[in-house]
Write a structure and sequence with these properties.
This protein is 34% helix and 27% strand. It contains 9 helices and 12 strands. The strands form 2 sheets. It has a 6-stranded antiparallel β-sheet with strand order 3-2-1-6-5-4. A 6-stranded parallel β-sheet has the order 9-8-10-11-7-12, with helices on both faces. The longest helix is centred in the middle third of the chain and has 15 residues.
Length: 276
């Protein structure tokens, strides 16, 4: 029997797993509460299985990009039940995929048991708010929850640029417009500069990946907008050092001054296993 993508993704949702791994020569793996487990009732996956699985979740253009670049980030929806952030790639010459499960509903800050202080941060009108931590430790969920709090409480124009789009926001008091890399824009820096001409109040930068993106985010915050962004760092001090060191030495003092003027908070987080 061919590997049915819908059935496998529904299984991930029913298990409340955070991640799914599909790889040639192995049964599917899922991660539940940080623990990686094998789906024992599935067969070991062949090349045909993985290729067929990917053919069900990729469009023609995405398949072409994957064949050329050998890796691709995109998102896929499972009806109205869930979304998945997907990284498709090759290993040992064979296709593989890692999928992150993204619930359709955005959890509240209270539901996430995050500190009440974060509610106060959602009242800030301008500056830079960074959420940092290792991959897979809930940075996107925390930011989505904070932005949705703003969406509920304030009439603002919220713009995002993401790779790919993860949580989908429904307009509440705010108008939320989300742009996905390579679908709605082809360049982070160009997209961020264009946003300044789109009457924004709040901007989400999916990830500050390089000095150009960081510089654009700082400049937007300097102009009186509220900017959210993520970084893969482990502490507030490391975050500041990472930002500064991404620039040439002759620009680092200037960047330190910019940070001192716009940085509101660095939220550093790491998930720990539940005791239950």
């Amino acid at each position: 029997m061919k590997l049915n993508a819908t059935q496998l993704l529904e299984r991930v949702v029913s298990l409340n797993a955070s991640d799914l791994h599909v790889s040639v020569g192995s049964k599917p793996y899922v991660r539940i509460k940080t623990v990686l487990s094998i789906l024992e009732d599935f067969d070991v996956l062949t090349v045909d299985d993985v290729e067929y699985f990917l053919s069900q979740i990729l469009d023609t253009q995405q398949r072409e990009v994957l064949e050329v670049n050998k890796e691709l980030d995109f998102s896929v929806a499972l009806g109205g039940k869930a979304r998945f952030r997907v990284n498709a790639f090759f290993q040992k010459g064979y296709p593989s995929a890692a999928l992150r499960h993204i619930p359709m509903s955005i959890p509240s800050l209270e539901a996430l048991n995050l500190p009440p202080y974060l509610v106060n941060l959602c009242r800030i009108k301008s500056g830079l708010i960074l959420v940092v931590g290792p991959t897979g430790h809930g940075k996107s969920t925390t930011i989505a929850s904070m932005i949705d709090k703003i969406n509920e409480d304030r009439a603002e124009h919220i713009l995002t640029v993401e790779d790919p789009i993860e949580y989908i926001f429904a307009n509440k008091k705010s108008l939320v417009e989300q742009r996905e890399m390579f679908l709605d824009t082809h360049d982070w820096t160009v997209a961020l500069k264009s946003m300044l001409r789109q009457d924004p109040n709040v901007i989400l930068v999916g990830e500050m990946r390089d000095s150009e993106t960081i510089s654009s985010a700082l400049e937007i915050a300097e102009t009186g907008h509220l900017v959210f962004a993520t970084l893969h760092t482990n502490s507030a001090s490391q975050t500041v050092e990472r930002i500064v060191s991404s620039f040439p030495s002759e620009k680092q003092n200037e960047v330190r001054v910019q940070l001192s003027q716009v940085l509101e908070v660095v939220i550093s987080q790491r998930l720990i296993p539940s005791p239950t």
